[in-house]
Amino acid sequence: MRSYDFAPLYRATVGFDRIADLMDRVMTADVAQPSYPPYNIEKTDENAYRISIAVAGFTPEELSVEVKEGALHVSARKAEDKTERRYLHRGIATRAFERRFALADHVRVTGATHEHGMLHLDLVREMPEALKPRRIEIASAPKALEATA
User: Fold this and answer.
1) Which residues contact 14 (CB under 8 A, 6 or more apart)?
2) Domain 33-127 top-level CATH class
3) Which pLDDT band holds residue 148 (cuts at 50, 70, 90)?
4) Are 40 and 52 in contact (CB under 8 A)?
5) For the chain, which residues make up each domain, given as ranges?
6) Measuring CA to CA, which residue among 71, 70, 136, 123 is closest to residue 98?
7) How far apart are CA 6 and CA 9, in angstroms?
8) What is the distance between the alpha carbons of residues 24 and 31, in angstroms, rounded to a whole number?
9) What share of the chain in percent tops pLDDT 70?
10) Which spans in the chain are helix H?
């Protein structure tokens, strides 16, 4: 795998540190991406998204969803099973997990629902008024004062 040097990006830009750090983290080869649990990310509207995570076997009380340091953290820890069960085949994984999703600026989580073994997280991108395009009116220059004789 290639490694890229982002030092020129740091030298030539101002205020893009977070993007460069994100690129650096994504391009790091030694970090293996976990594949459990499976998930989907879909765009539901121009500024709305939904992350759906397969959490079969977990109750809502065993799941945790937090937003901290610009990332969405989803974790689950199965409660201790006090019943003695004998499985002939155990194919539904209920092992603990932690999944992180980096959030762009101005993206916030608006809700979470748990149904049919899926955890759905709804997100929305809200642009602040200061960043939205606005039209600037151009005023006419004051007329020159005529010289009086």
Assistant:
1) none
2) mainly beta
3) low
4) yes
5) 1-31, 33-127
6) 71
7) 5
8) 11
9) 73
10) 7-12, 17-27
> Could you please report the per-residue DSSP string of 91-120?
-S----EEEEEEPPTTEEEEEEEEETTEEE
- Does the pTM exceed 0.85? no
CB burial of residue 10 (10 Å; 0-12, 13-18, 19+)? middle
Assigned token pair, 128:
């602040």
Tokens of 72: 């969405």
40-96 pLDDT per residue, tens = 999 999 889 999 999 988 999 999 999 998 889 999 998 777 778 888 888 887 889
List all residues 6 or more positions away from 91 whose beta carbon is below 8 Å from its beta carbon. Answer: none
